[in-house]
Each structure stands twice: as structure tokens, then as C-alpha cells.
């Protein structure tokens, strides 16, 4: 019997076999593969676009916990592999949603308003926001958002570079 993909979102195995040395190596290789996959995607994404990209693609993928690309209505089109570890949400879950699904009751509306205003004015923006993981746990996210233009200087996307701020390190 085939299980629809949406049901796999909540799948948890009933047991966990003991971890072996090759599991550790496999996890490391899998993380490296995900990092390279993210780098390749971003290189191809930026091939015909211009953006005040803060760093080269390799450093961006290594220096940020998550990278998110949205359309003009700020609907998520792509998230990096680090998005899952930072938020607990899979790519499948995040696609076609607005990033505000990460917000919650204690999130600061004034900061959110500033971000929206900057994006409406096509300005890069930077803020530290209170987000919520899938588990409901709060975390501080340092977010840097850039507008992305095509070669004709038409706005086509936004890209957000996100890094979790450890408790007590908030600016």
C-alpha cells in the first residue's frame, strides 16, 4: 500500500538501531552532499540574476543556518537543507507558505512591520526576530533579506539568509 507523501511528514520510527561508525560517516557525507546541493542550486539560481549577494555561494551556505527564496508575494519557493535542522519543518511543508508561519504569539509585530516596509520599498533588510520551531520552542533568528532582480533590473524574488542566535547573544 502506498502512503501519500503528506503522511510521511509526521512519520516517526518506532525503534532506533544502535549507531555504528559508518552511520557517523554516512551522516557527515549526507550533510556535505546537502551543502553541495544547496550551493549548486544557488549558483544556478543566480546565473541570470543580480543581487547584492553578501558572500559567494559557498560561504553563504556554510555561514547561514538556512536560506529561503520567496516570490514577490513572499511565498516560499525554495529552502536550503539547513531549514529543517533550524526549524523542524521539512522543505515539503514550507513550500508555498509565507515565512510568517514561523511566527507566534510572542513575535514582535513592530519588527515584522519594518521588514514588510523595507521589502515593499525594495530595500535590503536586517532584523532579529523571535520565531517558533515545529516543536513550539522559541528561537531568535538573525535574518538578512535581499531583493533579487533579473538582468533587466526587474524584481523577481527575495532571498533570506538566516542564522540562529544562541540565547543571551541577541544584539
Short description:
This protein is of the alpha+beta class and 171 residues long.
Report on this structure:
With 171 residues, the chain is α+β, with helices and mostly antiparallel strands. Helix content is 34%, strand content 25%. It contains 6 helices and 6 strands; from the N terminus they run ααβαββαααβββ. It has helices at 5-8, 21-45, 57-63, 82-87, 91-94, 109-120, and strands at 49-50, 66-70, 76-79, 125-132, 138-150, 155-165. Strands 1, 2, 3, 4, 5 and 6 form a 6-stranded antiparallel β-sheet that branches. The longest helix has 25 residues, at 21-45.
Features:
single chain; 171 residues; alpha+beta; 25% strand; globular
Amino acid at each position: 500500500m502506498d502512503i501519500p507523501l503528506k503522511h510521511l511528514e509526521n512519520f516517526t520510527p518506532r525503534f532506533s538501531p544502535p549507531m555504528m561508525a559508518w552511520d557517523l560517516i554516512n551522516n557527515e557525507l549526507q550533510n556535505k552532499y546537502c551543502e553541495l546541493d544547496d550551493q549548486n542550486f544557488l549558483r544556478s539560481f543566480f546565473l541570470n540574476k543580480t543581487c547584492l549577494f553578501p558572500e559567494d555561494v559557498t560561504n553563504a551556505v556554510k555561514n547561514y543556518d538556512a536560506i529561503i527564496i520567496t516570490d514577490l508575494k513572499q511565498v516560499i519557493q525554495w529552502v536550503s537543507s539547513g531549514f529543517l535542522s533550524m526549524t523542524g519543518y521539512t522543505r515539503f511543508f514550507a513550500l508555498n507558505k509565507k515565512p510568517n508561519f514561523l511566527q507566534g504569539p510572542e513575535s514582535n509585530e513592530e519588527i515584522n512591520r519594518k521588514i514588510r516596509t523595507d521589502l515593499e520599498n525594495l530595500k535590503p533588510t536586517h532584523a532579529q526576530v523571535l520565531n517558533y520551531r515545529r516543536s513550539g520552542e522559541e528561537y531568535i533568528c538573525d535574518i538578512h533579506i535581499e531583493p533579487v532582480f533579473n538582468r533587466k533590473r526587474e524584481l523577481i524574488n527575495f532571498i533570506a539568509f538566516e542564522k540562529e542566535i544562541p540565547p543571551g547573544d541577541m544584539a
